[in-house]
Amino acid sequence: VMWEPMGDGKKLMSLADNNILLWDLQESSAKAVLSSSAVLEGKGQLKFTSGRWSPHHNCTQIATANDTTVRGWDTRSMRQIYCIENAHGQLVRDLDFNPNKQYYLASCGDDCKVKFWDTRNVTEPVKTLEEHSHWVWNVRYNHSHDQLILTGSSDSRVILSNMVSISSEPFGHMVDDDELSDQEEQHQEEKIKEPLQDSVIATYEEHEDSVYAVEWSSADPWLFASLSYDGRLVINRVPRALKYHILL
Q1: What is the pLDDT of residues 19-65, one digit of tens each?
Q2: Cα separation, 72 vs 53, whole angstroms
Q3: CATH, domain range 46-169+195-247
Q4: Considering only CA atoms, which of 26, 27, 25, 23 is closest in space to residue 35?
Q5: What is the pLDDT of residue 195?
Q6: How many angstroms separate the CA atoms of 234 and 14, rounded?
Q7: Are 128 and 163 in contact (CB under 8 A)?
C-alpha cells in the first residue's frame, strides 16, 4: 500500500497480485472508494513484488516491479508509460524515486545490483552499483541530499553510497563569485567542468543476518535505520566529515 506522496492524504494505491488499485478517501474517512484500477497482463501467474509512487508530475506516476521488469504507469489513465524489461538479471526487490530529479528512479534486486534509470530513456541504466554480494532488498534516496543512497542486502551489510554525479548537485554547491580571488576562481572553473566522483562512503556490518529494510529518518536527514532478519534494529549517522563536506 502506498499513500500519495505529496497530496492531502486522500489517495492511496495498493498492489495485489497482478492488480493496481487506486483508492479515494474523499467520500468518507472511514471507507476507501475504488476510483480506478489496472491489471498486469501476460503469460503465467504475474505478481507485483514492489511499487513506488513518484513525488513528481503532480503525483500522476507510479513505478512497479514484477519479476525482472520495472514498469511506469500514469495514474490518470492507468496505462503503462514505460517498461524496462530485464531491468535486473533476477527478481527486482525494491524501487525508489529521486526526490529532487523528476525522471530518476533507482531499482535493486536479486542479481546483487543497484541500478539508476532515467525514465525518459530506459534502454540502459545511467549508473550501476555492484557493491553487494547477495540479494539487495532495499534502496533509499536521502530526502534532502539526493546523492546519498542507502542499500540493504542479504549479505548482512548496509552500504551508504555517494552517487553525486547523478544527483541534483553533480558539481557540488555553487559558490558566489564575489567570495573568490582570481586564482580560486580559475580553480573553481576547473572543478565545475568535472562532475564529482561517485563512491561508497561506508559499509556497516553490525547485522549478522539478512538486512530486509533500510530507511532514512523523516526528521533528521543524517540519521538512518536498518532492520535484519534476526530482529536487530540498528540506527546510524552519516559520517560527520561527509556531512560537513556536503553542507560546506
Answers
A1: 999 999 876 667 888 999 999 988 877 899 999 999 999 999 999 99
A2: 10
A3: 2.130.10.10
A4: 23
A5: 62
A6: 29
A7: no
Q: Scanning the structure block, which residue is given the C-alpha cell 557540488?
A: 172
3-state secondary structure of 165: helix
Q: How many CB atoms lie within 10 A of CB 170?
A: 15
Query: What predicted TM-score, i.e. pTM, was given to this entire model?
Result: 0.87
Instruction: Tell me which H or E stretch contains 202.
Output: strand 199-204
Measure CA 123 to chain center.
19
Beta bridge partners of residue 60, listed in sequence order: none
Kindly report, residue by residue over 188-208, the tens digit of the pLDDT: 455 445 666 888 999 999 999
Nearest to 162 by CA among 63, 53, 55, 239: 239
Express each pLDDT in 54-64 by its tens digit: 999 999 999 99
Among residues 58, 17, 12, 59, the alpha carbon closest in space to that of 36 is found at 12
Strands 114-118 and 127-129 turn out to be antiparallel
